[in-house]
Amino acid sequence: MDTKKLLEKCRSRLVLEGLLKALLVGVIVGFAVDFVFALITAFFTEYFDYWYLVALGVGLGTGLIAGIVIYFLAFRPDTKKIARRIDALGLEERLITMTELENDDSYIARRQREDAKEKLSKFDVKSIKFVLAKSLIVAAIIVGVFGLSMTTVNALVQYEFIPEGGSNIFNPLEPDDAPIMVLYEVTDDTAGWIEGEVEQLVEVGGRTSVVTAVAAEGYMFMYWEEDQKATAERFETNIIDDDEDGIIIFTAYFEEIPDNNEEGDLPTDEPSDVPQEEQNDTFDPDNDPNKEGQGDRYASSNQVMDGKTPYQSVFDEYYEKALEDIQNGNYTEEEAAIIKAYFDILKGGVGADKEGE
Questions:
Q1: DSSP run (H or E) holding 213
Q2: Angle at the Cα of 232 (from 226 to 233), degrees rounded to 5?
Q3: What is the pLDDT of residues 177-186, one digit of tens each?
């Protein structure tokens, strides 16, 4: 085989090896840049919609440039590198010596070149194996995984599958999302206390457990100061912190029970100070509610809202008005039947009263 052709085949194999090494270096550099760029831009997704694509593009571009540069600087095989590589496979420095003496026309130099060409003609190009450092391969895989992962995270942030990076670092928990502390207190520890959990940490929109304001002896519960609620037992639902300070307080207010029944105090069974003759208890035999036939027509439960006029005095007026409304079609048949039945019942009672009169 022609020596030049053989060297070219060796060169092609070593060029491919150099390109693979440069590619691995480019992958490491490119995905490292991609990782850093995607990490930084995850804080600024509100300003641009496609940072993850930009990060990936910048990383690949930087990696490509880095691979080309490193190939020409470190991995491009020249004649001496090829000669050393072949000599290492059994030619015992014949090729490197031949390249050094290629311009020497002496007898010894010619004999050396002839010997090198003879040995090279028997050399198998396939014996040149690709030599790639395992550490370079491992580094390329690790950095590639990190770079692609960070790019994926950036995309998930953009499409709001996970929170924006900036909100997690500079504002770890928004006030609207933070749990709210609900406190139950009393205005005076001697007047009463709270039964139940007085400090409750509740999620936004959640509910508290039940608590009860219990009055001490000689006191009575009045209301909760914040919303004037007069029920001692309470619980909150749909908790929202309007002040955004993370705390909501409810305070139970108690009052001391007075000893004397002053104006506005609780009623007692003591007799009234109003003279008996002013209490309008004069017996009237003609209008005695217990008189035979009178029934209880004058009782307050049988009087219209003015508290004076008995129903029977205005019954006819309301009865005629109801019949007029029914005739005018102001009610459905079902409603009319109910109204008629109701007035028939009343009419029977009133009619009995009238006969008693």
A1: strand 211-215
A2: 100
A3: 688 999 999 9
Contact 222, 255 (CB under 8 A): yes
Measured between alpha carbons, how far is 1 from 121 in angstroms, rounded to an integer? 6
Strands 247-256 and 233-234: unpaired
- Tell me the DSSP string of 146-179: HHHHHHHHHHHHHTTSS--HHHHHTSSS-TTTS-
Regarding whether 337 and 242 lie in a shared domain, the answer is no
For the four alpha carbons of 276, 278, 280 and 282, in that order, the dihedral sign comes to positive
What total of structural domains would you count in the chain? Answer: 3
**Can you say whether the dihedral through the CA atoms of 17, 22, 25, 27 is positive or negative?**
negative
Which among 137-141, 162-166, 275-279, 353-357 has the top mean pLDDT? 137-141
Residues in the chain, how many? 357
Does residue 30 sit in the same domain as residue 157?
A: yes
pLDDT tens digits, residue range 105-150? Answer: 777 777 776 766 777 666 666 777 778 888 989 999 999 999 999 9
Place of tokens 């070219």: 8
> C-alpha distances in angstroms, 308 versus 262, 289, 301?
30, 14, 11
Q: Cα(115)–Cα(93) distance, rounded to whole angstroms? A: 11
167 SS3 class: helix
Whether 102 contacts 114, CB under 8 Å: no
Do 213 and 351 fall within a single domain? no
Whether 23 and 136 have beta carbons less than 8 Å apart is answered as no
CA distance 213 to 251: 9
- % of the chain exceeding 70 in pLDDT: 68
Chain position carrying tokens 């002053």: 262
Has residue 273 been placed in a domain? Answer: no
Round to whole Å and give the CA distance between 80 and 355. Answer: 141
Report if residue 276 sits inside a domain: no
Radius of gyration (Cα) for the chain, nearest Å? 52
Alpha carbon distance 354, 352 (integer Å): 5
Q: Tell me the residue range of the domain where 234 lies.
A: 180-256
